[in-house]
Amino acid sequence: MAQIQVQHQPPVTGPNGVAANAGGAPGQFVSTSLYVGDLDQNVTDSQLYDLFNQVGQVVSVRVCRDLSTRRSLGYGYVNYSNPQDAARALDVLNFTPLNNKSIRIMYSHRDPSIRKSGTGNIFIKNLDKAIDHKALHDTFSSFGNILSCKIATDGTGQSKGYGFVQFDSEEAAQSAIDKLNGMLINDKPVFVGHFLRKQERDGAWNKTKFNNVYVKNISESTTEDDLKKIFGEHGQITSVVVMRDGDGKSRCFGFVNFEDPDAAAKAVDNLNGKKFDEKEWYVGKAQKKYERELELKERFEQSMKEASDKFQGVNLYIKNLDDSISDEKLKELFSEYGTVSSCKVMRDPDGNSRGSGFVAFSTTEEASRALAEMNGKMVVSKPLYVALAQRKEERRARLQAQFSQMRPVAMAPSVAPRMPMYPPGAPGLGQQFLYGQAPPSIIPPQVIIYCNVFLIWLIFFINFDECQYFCFLIM
Fold first, then answer.
1. Do residues 184 and 170 make contact, with C-beta atoms less than 8 angstroms apart?
2. Per-residue pLDDT tens for 232-280?
3. Is the Cβ–Cβ distance between 255 and 212 less than 8 Å?
4. Range scoring the smallest mean pLDDT among 129-138, 192-201, 276-285, 400-409
5. Which of 150, 225, 286, 355 could form a disulfide with 212 if both were Cys (CB 3.0 to 4.6 A apart)?
6. CA 149/CA 164 separation, integer angstroms
7. Do the Cβ atoms of 429 and 464 come closer than 8 Å?
8. Are strands 282-285 and 279-280 parallel, antiparallel or unpaired?
9. Do residues 149 and 104 make contact, with C-beta atoms less than 8 angstroms apart?
């Protein structure tokens, strides 16, 4: 393999020096707004302003912070008054050290669909640990306009040996893959390929061909020669082994490796479930640890989904139960409204009631009648809360939708008077300028914090009960 040396080329510019297709999308808002990542925890708005104002007139800056603790989230935004200054700042200031930590700049895309679509996104692995964000950017910038570039790092900032680059076009990404995949960078051959989401990677693993076959539940008397004879009918075998303990006794499982993947698949189809020596064999693809974990995870998720679908519309969630209410008592309370198919009071590891539970009826009509009659009813001096049980995804989506409607836009922290936080005549909220949406109202910070804490507690509380209940259903 030949070692390559890729020289960094500046972005293509127009006749007036403005980067062509700035931001990868048309529009004044996108081309003048920059995202600044990898910020040191102590970087302030004033420091960002001082740095970026050297390149052009800054309209507003903001370091994003946690709403309750006010700690920096490690990224922020800078808005310029014209796209020329934004393009110049991206070219000049990208990877500039700020508080001894290099910052990472890219155009701010308000619409996340570009990023989430995965278009033009490539994955690079087997990178030398010495390669940082800037070196990765310089290597790939010659193939097209880069929207995002990042090296994955651990908690100490050390490279994990892989990274991501997203181009503004699929053609640029494919060109980088064709030219750099398998080539040497810092004397190490790197893999460059299209980025796959986790679901796509999981699906790819399941569809891969295999040569190695795993067989278990064989009798103790079964030898390698027996396996070779039985499996050899389906294709050429390269190796066979029966696993044994320290005393040489068979552990009743082994492996058969075929020369041809099609022969291995044929052996699995024909021999799995067959009986030999009155023992039913399991024959399947020999899996690595992560593949076994993936299969078990999929089975568990599928069983939970089936249990949820089975009880959809007939399963009620009850809370504010008195500690004296048992499973039998709960079933007795709801039995007058129909046939109760399952009933459970949720308890902690010590057996104490959590004050909540689930009741499932045989029909949706019975569940609806129980919901109408029992919600708010006093039981042992406590009013019950009764509602249809929801899956975690449905409940989370509903809570997030409600929270987004009530959440106000946080006001930007104050900075030095010499720095304008928003253009003259605009509303006095930096957030509105950055994201282009007006705040519905100004709510005191204390109220915002209480709302956040309450919703987080609510999501956790309900999720914990639901997880336990689904486990109860599928046992």
1. no
2. 889 899 999 999 998 889 999 999 999 888 899 889 989 998 888 888 9
3. yes
4. 400-409
5. 286
6. 6
7. no
8. unpaired
9. yes
End-to-end alpha-carbon separation of the chain, Å?
56
* CA–CA gap between residue 318 and residue 344 (Å, rounded): 10
- Amino acid, res. 287: Q
For the record, the structure tokens of 321 come out as: 């139960």
DSSP 257-281: EESSHHHHHHHHHHHTT-EETTEE-
Instruction: Compute the radius of gyration of the chain from its Cα atoms.
Output: 31
Residue with tokens 């129980």: 370
Among 361-365, 374-378, 386-390, 438-442, the minimum mean pLDDT is found in 438-442
How far apart CA 197 and CA 115 sit, in angstroms, is 12
Least trusted range by pLDDT, from 4-18, 40-54, 93-107, 151-165 = 4-18
* Chain-centroid distance, C-alpha 199: 10
What does pTM read for this prediction? 0.40
Confidence tier at 429 by pLDDT (50, 70, 90): very low
Question: Rounded to whole angstroms, what are the CA distances from 135 to 8, 130, 149, 404, 454?
Answer: 9, 9, 10, 39, 45
Q: How many angstroms separate the CA atoms of 87 and 30, rounded? A: 11
CA distances from 47 to 78, 103, 378 (A): 12, 12, 59
User: Alpha carbon of 134 to those of 71, 166, 249: distances in Å?
Assistant: 26, 14, 58
Q: What is the DSSP letter of 121?
A: E
Which H helix or E strand runs over 400? helix 392-406
- State the pLDDT at residue 293: 74
Amino acid at 247: D
Of 181-185, 194-198, 214-218, the range with the highest mean pLDDT is 214-218
d(CA 211, CA 209): 7
Place of tokens 């020669």: 225
What would the two tokens of residue 371 be? 């919901």
DSSP one-letter code for 138: H
**Is residue 59 within 8 Å of residue 80, measured between CB atoms?**
yes
- Phi, psi of 107, deg, nearest 5: -65, 140
| 108 pLDDT higher than 60 | yes
Residue 202 CB partners (closer than 8 Å, separation 6+):
294, 298
What is the distance between the alpha carbons of residues 103 and 87, in angstroms, rounded to a whole number?
16
Tokens of 475: 């046992």
Nearest to 60 by CA among 420, 437, 424: 420
